[in-house]
Amino acid sequence: MDDKIRLDVVTPYGLILSEDVDELTAAGSEGEFGVLPGHVPFITTLRTGMLIIKRDGKTEYVFVSSGYAEVTFNKVVVLADSAERAEDIDVERALAARKRAEERLQQAEKVDFARATAAIERSTIRIQVAEKRSAK
Ligand code: ATP
């Protein structure tokens, strides 16, 4: 199917998504990028962010932590540390993770600043993606 893109989202926890889509937008480390069928091949690293997927007139949102994306003619493979579809996000868990990381940052000593800020970023974006559920 030349008019579709096969999108696979793979994490160490398993295959999160594998479907034919019309277009997608992802958070590359150099900025957001969009992919349509027939895109020139490239590989990029990804920031923690959201994948926005369009299929049959519907939009789906997926949380993706850092990783990379490989784009070929009509296939995109996203390899990420973790990923969840909007409807699979546990908002309470994300809120608790954010609170824990914020509390860690309050401690004056022995704080792994990068780790705590990355945890805050993951939880904040998870909450944003979960809020998109109703926007379908
Ligand atoms: P936590 O501290 O809550 O574990 P985390 O950001 O450290 O959050 P990750 O290391 O990114 O978690 O992910 C570990 C596993 O847990 C992955 O399978 C991921 O999909 C899942 N996961 C993490 N947070 C959530 C959430 N809020 N809702 C659903 N699944 C989650």
Tell me the layout of helices and strands.
Layout (H helix, E strand, L loop, with lengths): L4 E7 L2 E8 L1 E6 L2 E5 L6 E5 L2 E7 L2 E7 L2 E6 L2 E6 L2 E3 L5 H16 L6 H19 L5
Parallel strand pairs: 1-9
Antiparallel strand pairs: 1-2, 3-4, 3-6, 5-8, 6-7, 7-10, 8-9
Helix pairs in contact: 1-2
This protein binds adenosine-5'-triphosphate (ATP).
Adenosine-5'-triphosphate binds next to helix 1 and helix 2.
Concise synopsis of the structure shown:
This protein is α+β, with helices and mostly antiparallel strands and 136 residues long. It has two helices and ten strands, in the order E-E-E-E-E-E-E-E-E-E-H-H. A hairpin with a 2-residue loop joins strand 1 and strand 2.
Q: What does this molecule look like?
A:
The protein has 136 residues and is an alpha+beta fold. The chain folds into 2 domains: 5-86, Sandwich (ATP Synthase, domain 1), CATH 2.60.15.10; 89-134, Up-down Bundle (Single alpha-helices involved in coiled-coils or other helix-helix interfaces), CATH 1.20.5. Helices cover 26% and strands 44% of the residues. It is built from 2 helices and 10 strands; from the N terminus they run E-E-E-E-E-E-E-E-E-E-H-H. Strands 2-1-9-8-5 form a 5-stranded mixed beta sheet, with no helix packed on it. Strand 3 (23-28) and strand 4 (31-35) form a beta hairpin. The radius of gyration is 16 Å and the shape is elongated. The chain binds adenosine-5'-triphosphate.
